[in-house]
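User: Show me an example of a complex going from sequences to structure tokens.

Assistant: Sure. Here are the input components:
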Amino acid sequence: MALLEVKDLKVRVEEREILHGLTLTVNEGEIHAIMGPNGSGKSTLSHVIAGKPGYEVTDGQILFRGEDLLEMSPDMRAAKGVFLAFQYPVEIPGVATMNFLRTALNAQRKARGEDEFSTPDFLRKVREVSKSLNIPQDMLKRGVNVGFSGGEKKRNEVLQMALFEPSLCILDEMDSGLDIDALRIAADGVNALHSPKRAMVVITHYQRLLNYIVPDVVHVMSKGRVVKSGGKELALELEASGYAQFEDAA
Amino acid sequence: MNVAVAKTGKGRAVSDLFTSAEGRLPGSSAVTAVRREAFETYERLGLPHRRIEEWKYTDLRALVGEVLPLAAAPDAAALKRAADAVKAHAIDGAHKLVLVDGVLAADLSDVKALVAEAGFKTLRETLEKDAGLLRTASTDAVIALNAAMATDGVVLSIADGAKLSAPIQIIHIATAASASSFTRSQVTIGNGARVTIVETFVSADAKAYQVNDAILVSVGDDADVAHIRLMDDAPDAVNVSSHFVTIGANVKFNFFNMTTGAAVSRLQGFITLAGEGSELSANGVNLLQKTEHGDTTLVVDHAVPNCVSREVFRAVIDDRAHSVFQGRIIVRPDAQKTDGKMMTRALLLSDEAEADNKPELEIFADDVSCGHGATAGALDDSLLFYLKARGLPEKQAQALLIQAFVGEAIEQIADDGLREHVIGIAERWLERRQ
């Protein structure tokens, strides 16, 4: 059974249809890249999979290990193993990162019927994970993302990914606002988390991110549909010739 | 004196209230005369209503209608329930003074320690000799009623230079339903003294009761004072509390109030900075739900130069609840170099929740730095979605954001243990909401 199956998905925002029948299948352990110009519906797809309000699904299905994801609240989707790494992670003043991580991790465990982490066990785990990602402890004492640089915010997303151990990671334009060093650090973190059981969907405009996170499959989106899929060489082709040819194809 | 002047049914009921209680009220004949005078003032004014500017948003005449009869002295069963409430609400390590239905319960209080450390007396004892404690300059009707009806309270005299290691916690417990209690306390803090006072208002099973409390605090020079009020009354209760503070020179005074209950509540604070070089931090949180009405009215009077005041208030309002914040900073003509700031924010959790914020500045000096701000809004959807996408159910995500919202006010409490105690009360409010 596929990990994620998006079948003929049609999505409206207010009166405008953004996704016009999108189909996508992701299996365990695969890395998929979704590329396309602005306005092609890439972020809409990631938001709808994660359950963000404001999108109306008019047709189609999203199945996660065969279960209907559209019937689940965003927190249930997270507990099932869906993780969206935000393009612009929000700042939450007054909520200490450590407290947020513990509350979220235990909420997910509780929803899955697992024992919650005790404080010492949680601290041990978070120290271990943050050390492996070179995240300084003082970042964890601050408010969630408050005063973080773009690179720190993305590393905080990777830290959460490592801590929550999701089965599907969707990286929404992870390269936004990152310089080349920060991009490499974040991509290294993502690669360290990739495993035969964990799939990654990398949403990006640019080929450069795919120098660091090498995809098994590249999809080109245009006007709310996947218009072409291929191997990693498709990204290089896009880099050379641009999206114009695919816009015509849509 | 004839107190039965009113002709209406409600007027007669008010007169009966005092007449029936008078025999049980402590004090000499001189005290009785002061009480009657105060009651006449109350009768003349009646319950405050919206045409009185200071009470515009908290129309007691409409919200409450009448004052309930004075609570009877608590019996053994009530004292047992009160003892259980003390266990639930006492702060670890604090010296306790417990007032049950408006009367000090010596057996539940740390009287011996406090007589030695803080010169403790009851209001009853004080009134045997002197009616001074019943007099205030205020013309407010509920304060006049408090003077007329006060049954007991605590009188503390902290000596010059005394450093009290443990907080003093005054716990007001209501056990009598459909009854009212009137308490009045005084705290005199000597020069260079350091003390923390916590006042807690709770119920032991009583529901529709009324509290009218007043506390008068006088602070000498160079003192360091924390004063925390926790109004955690039963959902059907009414609590109107008045708080008068006069602060000397070079004092650090940290005031915090949190309201987490009562159908109708009002804290009215009148704080005067009367000595130069003092710093006042006055902060508060209202957590309201259902049809609760919570009013915080604070007047900070800069009477002398070179003082600093900071006010941070937060209100979280759910269902059809109504929060009121009125903050006035007065800067007198001589109070040059005053630095006064006030910020109040309301978080509305439902479409029917209501917030009235009324910050005011009255500035009569020309070399000052003063400002105020007020906002009201809903929870940020993008923050809520971020938390839900990380596995937090809706209510839990809201709770985390609400805690963060009120955190800025609660963080002003310097003592770690007290801050945790206050956070615990806020968390219980959030659990009740869920």
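The lines above are the inputs; the final block is the predicted structure for all two components together. Chain B has ten helices and 19 strands.
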